[in-house]
């Protein structure tokens, strides 16, 4: 229908044409998760927990042979992100205070901004070095 109508005679520069073609061919940008909205120190905590490259005993012992073992001080399991956020009895009170209902570790690490901030608060309250 547009082709049958009279076309305006507006000159388009080479650069404008190039930009239009590129914008058509570019894939749509994926939405960034809320991790990118956080302050830098909060981002660092979440990134280290997500990747497992942190100062928890499991990583330090398995990667660098630092410490006597990878076991958590509770003695029930290796000190990993999952263990600290979900199971460690030492941090039950902190966990219940921040997440009264059971929350999946995926939500704690990849959820909306409010959940990420809860995770950061939890880590800060436990005084663990991440």
TrEMBL record:
This is Reverse transcriptase. It comes from Candidula unifasciata. The lineage of its organism: Eukaryota, Metazoa, Spiralia, Lophotrochozoa, Mollusca.
């Amino acid at each position: 229908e547009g082709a049958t109508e009279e076309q305006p005679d507006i000159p388009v520069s080479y650069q404008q044409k190039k930009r239009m073609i590129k914008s058509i061919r570019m894939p749509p940008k994926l939405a960034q998760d809320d991790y990118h909205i956080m302050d830098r120190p909060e981002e660092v905590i979440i990134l280290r927990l997500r990747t497992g490259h942190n100062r928890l005993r499991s990583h330090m012992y398995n990667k660098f042979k630092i410490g006597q073992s990878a076991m958590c001080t509770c003695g029930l399991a290796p000190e990993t992100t999952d263990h600290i956020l979900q199971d460690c009895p030492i941090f039950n009170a902190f966990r219940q205070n921040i997440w009264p209902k059971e929350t999946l570790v995926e939500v704690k690490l990849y959820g909306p901004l409010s959940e990420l901030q809860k995770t950061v608060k939890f880590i800060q309250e436990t005084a663990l070095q991440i």
